[in-house]
Design a protein that fits this description.
Length: 394
């Protein structure tokens, strides 16, 4: 059988993944990734990485497998944290979990595992992998997890064929309840442990606290745009003429379009679709962020989930940000294809038409979608297979 290095996070999913690999007869080595040193941005009096590493060590002892803590904090800061700060400062909303998988778990961590003579790396992701042959070439497919409520294929949407070829996902065919049952039967310390809600491998971090490490608070105006106001589109920001440009173009907000409701502490702390954190009451319907302007430090809001400026008919992915996990299915300029897609984790898949041009990719929705957020990832699927993804520019 194979030598497999499992990323043991101190949670129940990776714990059971390690056990299943042993049951299959593999030689299993457990590594815990320490990705962050700055305890000043965690919740007071808690030290999550120490607690998690201790739990991971106890699981490894229980399973009888070698265990080691590896420090990847330098690479994590360079590839994830610095990127996050730059994206938020520019008014975009990055997804650190997607980046962590692409840049850390299946790159830096994968290299460390290969240096230990591993054949594969394994994680506790709820997704599946299989392989097919096409034109004599082996193609690895990334499939959704069997548990629809926990499917995490979206977080792996930026992996490539080489990374996927070295990956194992032992719990992909299980439901969460089964995973917890197995952990309880094994009397693992992680059996009843809550799922992590923090940033990828950092822990319980308040995002505004984290961002304030480099992005200083700055007072600015909160402007409400009435539903009846037809906000113009800034079509010129998409660098080409196309039939779909008007659907994907960003809204051209201006302060004079609405009324000032109050102040915020920094436009770069907010994201499109956000409802909490505005600290403004007295409106007939809940306020949602419908636009941010980090250059002028203005937040634009609208009342109700049905505000027209909260929805779009399409999005645009720049040429450099298009990624095909299945490169054999990639579209050439001028080609189109129908898929299903999501623009955030756990979102129900919706129908789209992909249109490839010389400048990028238009993802046109069958039905308008709410809170299309620049900096996030769109991922497209054929049935339960993830085919490709891209960073949303507009």
């Amino acid at each position: 059988m194979a030598r497999v290095v499992v990323g043991l996070s101190g949670g129940v999913d990776s714990s059971v993944a390690a056990h299943l690999l042993l049951e299959q007869g593999h030689e299993v080595i457990a590594l815990f990734m320490r990705n962050w040193h700055d305890e000043s941005v965690t919740i007071h009096d808690e030290c999550p990485w120490i607690e998690d590493s201790n739990d991971a060590m106890l699981v490894a002892e229980k399973l009888g497998i070698p265990f080691q803590v590896i420090d990847l904090s330098e690479e994590y800061k360079e590839r994830i944290v610095d990127y996050m700060f730059a994206e938020y400062e520019a008014g975009r909303t990055p997804n650190p979990d997607v980046l962590c998988n692409r840049e850390i778990k299946f790159d830096v961590f994968l290299d460390k595992a290969m240096a230990l003579g591993a054949d594969f790396v394994a994680t506790g992701h709820y997704c599946r992998k299989d392989s097919i042959k096409r034109d004599g070439k082996v193609i690895h497919r990334l499939l959704a997890g069997r548990d629809n409520n926990k499917d995490q294929s979206y977080f792996l949407c930026q992996l490539n064929q080489e990374q996927l070829s070295k990956a194992l996902f032992p719990i992909g065919d299980l439901e969460k309840s089964e995973v917890r049952r197995i952990a309880a039967e094994l009397d693992l310390v992680t059996a009843d442990k809550k799922d992590s809600q923090g940033l990828c491998f950092i822990g319980k971090v308040r995002l505004p606290d984290f961002l304030q490490q480099q992005l200083a608070p700055k007072k600015g105006a909160v402007i409400e745009i009435p539903k009846a106001y037809e906000v113009p589109l800034d079509e010129e920001r998409i660098p080409e003429e196309s039939p779909w440009r008007r659907y994907a173009a960003p809204y051209a907000f201006e302060a004079k379009m609405g009324q000032r409701l109050g102040e915020h502490n920094g436009a770069h702390y907010f994201t499109i679709g956000q409802r909490k954190g505005l600290a403004i009451g007295g409106t007939a319907e809940p306020l949602f962020v419908i636009g941010t302007d980090t250059k002028n430090n203005i937040i634009y809001t609208g009342q109700g989930e049905d505000h027209p400026a909260l929805k779009k008919k399409a999005l645009f992915v720049a040429e450099k940000d298009i990624h095909w996990l299945r490169s054999d299915l990639s579209l050439k300029p001028g080609e189109s294809s129908s898929y299903q897609a999501r623009i955030r984790y756990r979102q129900t898949l919706f129908g789209v038409e992909l249109h490839r041009t010389n400048h990028g990719l238009y993802v046109v929705f069958d039905e308008p979608q709410k809170a299309v957020t620049p900096g996030q990832f769109v991922a497209w699927y054929k049935d339960d297979e993830l085919i490709g993804s891209g960073v949303i520019q507009f």
